[in-house]
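job 3f2a | input accepted
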Amino acid sequence: MSSRRIIVGITGATGSIFGVRLLEVMREAGIETHLIMSKWGARTMVHETSRTQEEVNALASHSYNPNDQGAAVSSGSFLTDGMVIAPCSMRTLAAIAGGQGEHLVHRAADVILKERRKLVLVVRESPLSEIHLENMLKLARMGVTILPPMPGFYNHPKSLDEMVDHIVMRILDQFGVHVDLAARWDGRMTVGK
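job 3f2a | predicted structure (193 res):
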């Protein structure tokens, strides 16, 4: 594998803009992306954004039907740097934690786990139940990065786009891809602004 190759899952939780923006930034960075958008991920994305599923699929290097269990990303012999699911619904979190491979997002994540590659879950729900927390803890103990899209305010974001970019930057940091989409913490505090 000569260049970076990352699987991107978009599932049915609110916050599909994180997955869409992630694909845009990864494309600009020259990262090969393999997109799987669940049925509910596509429906939520169309509801929350002005994008069509076809437009978002076109942002990825490759896109897959979520029912295609024979896709390249369903095998450990298909080499990747890992996978990010943004947003990750609680249903998807539970399926991954329980080893349930109902569709390709779940199967691809299961492959990433068994191959001990990087898995980042941008989990979206609030408030969190004990079941959600137990599933997150179970996966965190397996080395999965649980990255709820919690914005930083130290960089004084002036728009929703800036808040989204901060989260996307933090997601890519997990894969060693460093793009400065937002101001990073430099240790200097401003008093009485």
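job 3f2a | The longest strand covers residues 82-88.
job 3f2a | closed
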